[in-house]
Amino acid sequence: MRPALHAEWTKIRTIASxxxxxxxxxxxxxxxxxxxxxxxxxxxxGCAGDTTKLSLTGIELGQALVAILAAGVVSSEYSSGMICxxxxxxxxxxxxxxxxxxxxxxxxxxxxxVAVLGSLLAGRLILPxxxxxxxxxxxxxxxxxxxxxxxxxxxxxxxxxxALLSLGIATVLRDSAASIGMALGLLYLFPIIAEAVGNPHWxxxxxxxxxxxxxxxxxxxxxxxSLPISPWAGLGVxxxxxxAALLVGGLLLRIRDA
Amino acid sequence: xxxxxxxxxxxxQLLQAEWTKFRTAPGWAAGMVAAALMMVxxxxxxxxxxxxxxxxxxPVGPGGEPVTDSFYFxxxxxxxxxxxxVSVSALREYTPSDLQPVIVPWAKAGLIIKDxxxxxxxxxxxxxxxxxxxxxxxxxxxxxxxxxxxxSATSVRWLRLDRSGDMVTGYDSADGRHWAKVGTVRVAGxxxxxxxxxxxxxxDSVHGISTSAxxxxxxxAKLRIRGSWPAGNWTGDQVAAEPSSSSGNxxxxxxxxxxxxxxxxxxxxxxxxxxxxxxxxxxxxxxDILFGAFPALILVIVVGTxxxxxxxxxxxxxxxxxxxxxxxxxxxxxxxxxxxxTFTAxxxxxxxxxxxxxxxxxxxxxxxxxxxxxxxxxxxxxxAALLATASILALAAGTMFRRSAGAVTTVIAAIVLPYLLxxxxxxxxxxxxxxxxxxxxxxxxxxxxxxxxxxxxxSNYTPYNGYYPLAPWAxxxxxxxxxxxxxxxxxxxxxxxxx
Lengths: 258, 499
Prior knowledge:
The complex is a heterodimer.
Chain A lengths: L1 H13 L1 H24 L11 H5 L3 H22 L1 H8 L3 H34 L19 H28 L2 H21 L3 H10 L1 H5 L15 H25 L3
Helix pairs in contact in A: 1-6, 2-4, 2-6, 4-5, 4-6, 4-7, 4-8, 6-7, 7-8, 7-11, 8-9
Chain B lengths: L10 H14 L3 H22 L17 E11 L4 E13 L6 E2 L5 E7 L8 E7 L4 E5 L3 E4 L11 E8 L2 E7 L6 E7 L8 E7 L3 E3 L2 E3 L2 E13 L7 E5 L16 E5 L2 E6 L2 E4 L11 H4 L3 H21 L2 H8 L3 H37 L9 H29 L2 H21 L5 H10 L32 H25 L3
Antiparallel strand pairs in B: 1-11, 1-15, 1-18, 2-3, 2-8, 2-14, 4-5, 4-11, 5-6, 6-7, 8-9, 9-10, 12-13, 14-17, 16-17
Helix pairs in contact in B: 1-6, 2-4, 2-6, 4-5, 4-6, 4-7, 4-8, 6-7, 7-8, 7-10
């Protein structure tokens, strides 16, 4: 396993695009969070809001870059033919996938931590100026608050699970455009479709099984009773999607010709 | 001069070459068929997943549009021509539950002549409003301003309606002596069963994304009637005892009126106005049926990107450019083939999806905002054009990046993400939501808009509710503008760079 990890670490370290994508993830997440917290206002009529979730809105964009990064880890090897070299050097194909997943998890977790902390800091600094003050029942966003800490740690886990999901999809589809389309489709379409269906039962079900709509419940800190699925269970749904994608990808990697 | 035989390297040949590539590459044609099927599939899903059996009937106005028609009416029959005038010295709104005063800008009290008390019947009315001065309104959608300013004991407003046949003229006055004409309107269908009198209505008050019920009380005096009013007493009735809105706010206090010494105190709730998305909770629009455009969009973006990036990955681009050295024309040929195929697939999907989804939704009791055939055709062709343009944008992005992943993500994020943000962030101010749906490529979803906002109805006119800030084709032009720009940049890069 160690040589495999070393090989994957060398690949991700020496290609320019993963570094840029990780930096891009941080920038996109923090910038979108800052923009969203800058435009919302809590008027005198009151607002039932979740400042932590609001501060972490940028994850919705950041995850797209994470998905590209993760898909590229596999699909770029197929488009360049590098995969033949990789598998010739390391015939244990599941080890290769495990090594890729491990390195990817570490890289995304590191970037995700920076992105989440940056977003929360932006929310802490910006929101009080827009009416979300302690006097109205909105204390400044702080990691000392239990649910906020859970939301922050959960958001980092969310990003790594998105990476693993996208990695699994790319291992199955092997083409980067199709993989990215599939990954973003899975993420963005569930919430949109859930709004479209008129039946509340179907709506709730779609919100419970969609990887993004379920997984992002980890960011909720208020009104937990009204969530379609509890925060950790929601993250579990995303983990199940990621595990299923990796499992299918791993099996296909073993039985298909490269 | 070239000695080559004519017709071997012309643009038609280039088009044919690109069409052959598109047709024969595995997955691309299938992707387009899948995009069309997605639209149909989602229309069926939306149709069969809804269940509104037993919802109250939606009142429909003289123009065929859905209306809200619920108010407290102190009335007498008006068999023929006649006139009525009154003074209003107070209009106050409050919450029905705990009687706290609130401001409901379009709370209204005044005079109305209506064809009976049936919901949706023709009418003309002149009224004082809480924050919009005196207004003359008729047949739900029409609204004309009269004297400005609020009404109070020191600023009494006098109102008058004259009926002559189908013509009704409204007047207002600050002193009861000097009358100014606000407007003369023709109200077709004001029959001999007409009713005239005083009314009070207070729509739900809107704060942020939530609404709550409200009630208004008005004080009328100096009531005068002339003309063919048969003898009788003033009768108070709640038009539509059940609140017609399905927004879920129950009417706590039924309307009442008391008279003492010629002064009428009338309390009522409801509204006389065109219906909007929020006042007709479960009602749908065609845009809801076309949600399949989102998965279709992702599919055509992937295919559009692959149409060029696959050539780079397989080095086919060198052959393509060697065969046709004028690179701009290659890009143009690709854009035309891709656009035509996507438009055809999108249109096929939309013309099947919309009627099918409408039929299924209606069968499940859903009320759909009515549209003309021309509007429906515009939504269908507009959606097809949206998909075609998005695929060309993806082609341009693919040419710029030469990599699939970045191009696919950029285009999906640019079109889908703004829509998602607008839909999901509850307290995004309307101005920001409007801005996002004006300047980003997501503006093109305006081609699916079929409902119009009314300034005389307070509501959340958000893109999410189907109210787009740009006119349909103007919204489409935003996406088209981005696409033309991206194609121009892509053409320049394609010429300058080595393949």
